[in-house]
Design brief:
By secondary structure, the protein is of the alpha+beta class. It is about 35% helix and about 25% strand. The strands form 5 sheets. Strands 16-13-15-14-18-19-17-20 form an 8-stranded antiparallel β-sheet, sandwiched between helices. The chain has a 5-stranded antiparallel β-sheet with strand order 6-7-11-9-10. It has a 3-stranded parallel β-sheet with strand order 3-5-4, with helices on one face.
Length: about 450
């Protein structure tokens, strides 16, 4: 039973546990033809259609009371083209399986997010990203897409074929059709040297531009209620491979990041007053370390502690101001925030509704332990992010609507016009899309 498995009596729940739905029926097609037939049948029955991956979105982007398409049988690599350096993979393939399969073939994606549980189509459709000075989100590495549209036909797109669809569908929010296969650009497998190092909050902000410019992949975590951060720099390396040592790796990744962290979250939830003290201890428990390994072993890490998350992309130039405002807000608010704030970057890209569309971006992610009240913190944080024309991650908690998005995405109308053309009857509509795209 996966994290998306249905609960009792046909109820579907997401990974974060904050969204549930009761679809009229669930379908797991074994081929593109079967999927197209399921779409046509839903239309005949007057039911809406949504595809859902592993439920890692914290929004109701995949929820439906109509037909829920489960893509677990649409998995695996269709073909590897070593001349074009691309790999075509079926939409339901989990990123972790893609990463392992590519590594076996001596290949890798250029950049990836920090979680690899999601399906390739779920991750790209919501704009999942890692951090990078020159390399963008997972969707920015797409070279071609195949999707089943509302009339049950199969549409392929790339820079050359249906380029208007390609511009939008790489991050399509499930609004333009159901993605069945994705062609990614890949490159020969390489090594990344990671350097993790605690650093004072004020120093990171003062040196941020330099840290960003000098590293291929820079990110950091700030521990609220403290002046401490943990920084991570990933850069390509000629080797040799030096994976995280087993005992040390287990201690840092499993014990500190998942085990002790879980207990700290339970204590913090039960007795909020203890949170600042726990935060100070946690931020001091991390020590500097370096290791060198193949990309997916450096970029990604397991996430066993369940949480709810909000993340906004602000213009990169506005990052330090945004973070100072966030810190002031937390310090003055009486809020007890037990999860670190994660900061990453992405270069501008050309995808219509990408959070980095047309602007160099910095991402600020706030988290709360699953089951703790997060509204006050997220509302106050969102007020700061939106003042900087922030764009929320499509799969994370936010309260924005179509009117707001039309302001912060210059090409918003381009996307809605394409949707009018591909799905005039709104077969793929749900409450979330009605809110963020308008009806």
């Amino acid at each position: 039973m996966s994290s998306t498995a249905s609960g009792k009596n046909g109820t579907w729940r997401n990974w974060g546990g904050n969204v549930s739905a009761r679809p009229a029926r669930q379908v797991a097609p074994a081929s593109v033809d079967e999927l197209a037939a399921a779409v046509r049948r839903a239309a005949e029955d007057g039911l809406k259609v949504k595809a859902v991956g592993t439920g890692h979105s914290f929004t109701s982007i995949a929820a439906t009371d109509g037909v829920l398409i489960r893509p677990q049988l649409l998995t695996g690599i269709r073909r590897i083209d070593r001349e074009a350096m691309t790999v075509t993979v079926q939409a339901g393939t989990p990123l972790k399986r893609l990463n392992v399969a590519l590594a076996r073939e001596g290949l890798s994606l250029t950049n990836m997010g920090d979680i690899m549980e999601q399906t390739v189509s779920g991750a790209t459709s919501t704009g999942t990203h890692g951090t990078g000075r020159a390399s963008g989100s997972i969707a920015a590495q797409i070279k071609g897409l195949e999707l089943v549209t509302a009339d049950g036909s199969v549409l392929t797109c790339s820079e050359k074929e249906n380029p208007d669809v390609f511009a939008a569908a790489r991050i399509g929010l499930g609004a333009l059709g159901i993605v069945t296969a994705i062609t990614f650009a890949v490159e020969p497998l390489f090594l990344l040297a990671a350097r993790e190092e605690p650093m004072p909050f004020e120093r990171v902000l003062a040196e941020f531009d330099q840290l960003w410019a000098e590293n291929e992949h820079f990110e950091f975590y700030w521990f609220p209620h403290t002046g401490s951060t943990n920084t991570k720099r990933n850069n390509r390396s000629a080797g040799p491979e030096q994976p995280v040592g087993q005992p040390a790796g287990w201690f840092e990744d499993e014990f500190l990041s998942n085990g002790v962290f879980q207990v700290a979250q339970w204590v913090g939830r039960a007795v909020p007053a203890t949170v600042p003290a726990i935060a100070r201890i946690s931020s001091k428990a991390l020590s500097a370390r370096t290791y060198t390994d193949i990309p997916y072993k450096v970029f990604t890490s397991p996430r066993r502690v369940r949480f709810v998350e909000m993340e906004y992309a602000v213009p990169r130039a506005a990052l330090t101001e945004t973070l100072r405002e966030l810190k002031t807000m937390v310090d003055r608010s009486g809020l007890r925030v037990s999860f670190p704030v994660e900061v990453r970057t992405a270069p501008a890209d050309d995808i219509t509704l990408s959070t980095a569309s047309g602007r160099d971006s910095a991402y600020v992610a706030v988290h709360m332990f699953r089951g703790t009240p997060y509204q006050a913190y997220f509302t106050a944080a969102e007020r700061i992010f939106t003042a900087h024309e922030g764009r929320p991650h499509w799969g994370k908690v936010h309260t924005r609507d179509a009117e707001y998005f039309a302001r912060v995405y210059p090409r918003f109308d381009e996307f809605t016009a394409l949707r009018d053309r591909l799905d005039p009857e709104r077969l793929f509509q749900n409450d979330y899309l009605r809110r963020v795209l308008g009806s």
